[in-house]
Amino acid sequence: MNKKIALMVLRTWDKKGWYIFTKHQLAKLFSEDSPKTLSEGLNRLLKDGLLQRACRGVYVNPEARSFDSYAIERIAKVLRYGEYNYLSLESMLSEYGIISQIPIDRLTVMTTGRKGFYKTPYGVIEFTHTKRSVKDILQNTQFIKEKPLRIATRKTAWRDLKRVGRNLDLVNREELLDEE
Predict the structure, then answer these.
(1) Are residues 118 and 138 in the same domain?
(2) C-beta separation of 105 from 78 below 8 A
(3) Which of 110, 113, 115, 135 has its CB surrounded by the most CB atoms within 10 Å?
(4) What is the pLDDT of residues 9-46, one digit of tens each?
(5) What distance in Å separates the CA atoms of residue 8 and residue 50, rounded to the nearest whole number?
């Protein structure tokens, strides 16, 4: 992988709004490279700071003009690509002002995929598996144009918190009931 060509490819995708890639996607972008050449090229790009490893198999272009405040959500989306994912639990209850503590470095995501825990330079992503149907997920979450992930409604985030057996003591029940 030639550094000059790699920069050109990263800039091209940056113009399209893409700055997070899986190793599989990078292998497609640099399809002429053998697996060994690709790995060595990625290591050079990481060493030079042109790419940053978010977690195993996921890379970020930290200098991208399209880089935004949703990097951790975009990483979560890439990690569970092809699954239904939405922000819920403490992340959303905090955003709604229903719990007193704000999870600053943690994103809690419900997913139809497998559960998991990923430490990234942008914070921790915690995936919790849900068996809810696609119809149920779509009916009880909202899509906000700017956000990469759907978000749980207040009621859904509360339901999820109870279902997974999390600490309910932080919940301000008056705030929860005010909006119902």
Answers:
(1) yes
(2) no
(3) 110
(4) 999 999 999 999 999 999 999 999 999 999 999 999 99
(5) 11
